[in-house]
Specification:
136 residues, single chain, mainly alpha, 89% helix, 0% strand
């Protein structure tokens, strides 16, 4: 038998699953450290791609100079400066990512906990209804 209370809970659970819950439930299936590590790996990859793109833009913008002075340019220094830039960009990104990913996970965990609590309440309502039906 459907009751108003069960319907309200089902609607609330359905709305959550279709909206923010889809993201939250994916996040909380990992442990917090695994989620943060995954985000750090994505940040390092993005920093590497950004560094390569910046280096390519620099090469294209200075192509005339590079071609005229190809034998006198210290490509080792360029590599060192690029490496330092990559490390600085990665470090800054990692620090921001750790803070942001931890905060996102904590917020998702709170919402998911409420979702699972509501789901448990709905299951309990169904079990109570089944027990009442078995008594009759």
């Amino acid at each position: 038998m459907l009751s108003e209370e069960k319907i309200k809970k089902m609607i609330r659970l359905s709305d959550y699953e279709k909206g923010q819950g889809a993201i939250d439930l994916k996040r909380v299936c990992y442990s917090k450290m695994d989620y943060v590590r995954f985000q750090i790996i994505k940040t390092i990859l993005a920093a590497f791609v950004a560094t390569v793109l910046i280096l390519m833009l620099f090469v294209v913008s200075r192509l005339d100079f590079l071609l005229q002075n190809a034998l006198t340019i210290s490509f080792g220094k360029i590599g060192v400066y690029s490496g330092i830039g990559f490390l600085a960009l990665s470090l800054a990104g990692i620090l921001v990512t750790i803070r942001r990913a931890s905060q996102e996970y904590a917020e998702s965990a709170v919402r998911a906990k409420e979702y699972y609590r509501t789901l448990k309440e709905l299951i309990d309502l169904y079990e109570q209804e089944e027990q009442e039906a078995n008594r009759i």
